[in-house]
Design a protein that fits this description.
348 residues, alpha+beta, Endonuclease III, domain 1, Nucleoside Triphosphate Pyrophosphohydrolase, 2 domains, 7-stranded mixed beta sheet, 16 helices, 7 strands, 15% strand, glycosidase, hydrolase activity, acting on glycosyl bonds
Length: 348
């Protein structure tokens, strides 16, 4: 079945005009807003991103503000979104834009893709949505829609497949409304042509063009090779409290959760007796309380955590943070959320 691209575009855009969600970065598609929202949306649902986006833009309304913000404050603004390397690259990008582009994101796809942290998809989104350049924005939603549309058995996890679809979709992008076209395909992928085996074909405005639906393969496609099994790491988290404040330590500048703050984090599982022996020379321990276990999944590793709350009478040269500091100043990864909540309950 050969797709009539003009009819396909019209049906897609008519649906988008009627059913598109009202989102703050769509209502005012400034290049900076589009960029910030797209980076936030890469691993997070739209509804969850809204308050983060509002808070980020209120504090850092321009590229200049982002380029100049303190690193700890920037990480705190990002806390809960994960993948902190993305926000570090955003600051690098903002600094480069201040130096090269007078404080603005460039309008051309080819210039955008050369900036730190901006890949093909993000460059396409900014160029098409903010600047109306006729270029595709190919994210996971778009790959899923077009894999089913064209009944493609190419593995969408491969970079070669993404490049192939970028070239294919270029022909489909509306010359008059590239911004609406790209957002419409993303919206179809998010709301209708959803992942796994449950596409909502009965309400899809482009189902008549879909070769996967025509051949009964909509539940099979797209093809994506399963990821390797994650490595499991055993950790012991020590929430050490002194005088109503908690000991925080800063992680190394490279590697997992780089430069973020954490509670005392030990490799392997430790017993109360082992912890007393470990800390006895440096601290006067008042009490040790076993906390519930917790688990956090990263992309390639799982932390299986045992926790303890240790109250001490003295600290040495340690960073002590109040609950207000924990809430407002220091970025603590979501991996430690369970122990952060337990700390708050204990202090209160």
């Amino acid at each position: 079945m050969r797709i009539n691209i003009e009819n396909f575009r019209n049906d897609l855009l008519n649906w988008y005009d009627e059913y598109a969600r009202v989102l703050p970065w769509r209502s005012e598609p400034l290049p900076y807003y589009v960029w910030v929202s797209e980076i936030m949306l890469q691993q997070t649902r739209v509804e969850a991103v809204k308050p983060y986006f509002a808070r980020f833009i209120k504090r850092l309304p321009t590229l200049k503000d982002l380029a100049e913000v303190d690193d700890d404050e920037l990480r705190k603004l990002w806390e809960g979104l994960g993948y902190y390397n993305r926000v570090r690259n955003m600051k690098k990008c903002a600094i480069e834009c201040m130096d090269k582009y007078n404080g603005f994101l460039p309008s051309a796809y080819e210039e955008l893709i050369e900036l730190p942290g901006i890949g093909s998809y993000t460059a396409g989104a900014i160029a098409s949505i903010a600047y109306k350049e006729v270029v595709p924005a190919v994210d996971g939603n778009v790959l899923r829609v077009f894999s089913r549309l064209l009944a493609s058995y190419d593995d969408i996890g491969k970079e070669s497949t993404k490049k192939k679809f970028h070239t294919i979709i270029q022909e489909y992008v509306s010359k008059d409304r590239p911004d609406a076209f790209n957002q419409a395909v993303m919206e179809i992928g998010a709301m209708v042509c959803v992942p796994n085996s449950a596409p909502r074909c009965n309400i899809c405005p482009i189902v008549s063009y879909c070769q996967a639906y025509e051949t009964g393969k909509e539940h099979v496609l797209p093809i994506k090779e399963k990821k390797l099994k994650r490595r499991i790491e055993k950790r012991t988290i020590v929430v050490m409290v002194h005088d109503g404040k908690v000991v925080l330590r800063k992680r190394p500048q490279t590697g997992l959760l780089a430069d973020l703050y954490e509670f005392i984090n030990l490799e392997g599982y430790h017993t109360k007796k082992q912890l007393k022996e470990l800390f006895n020379d440096s601290y006067t321990i008042k009490s040790i309380e076993k906390l519930p276990t917790s688990k956090h999944i990263f992309s390639h590793v799982e932390w299986h955590m045992h926790g303890y709350l240790i109250e001490v009478e003295n600290v040495n040269d340690e960073l002590l943070a109040s609950i207000t500091d924990v809430d407002e100043r220091y970025a603590i990864p979501t991996a430690f959320k369970a122990y952060k909540d337990m700390l708050k309950h204990y202090i209160k």
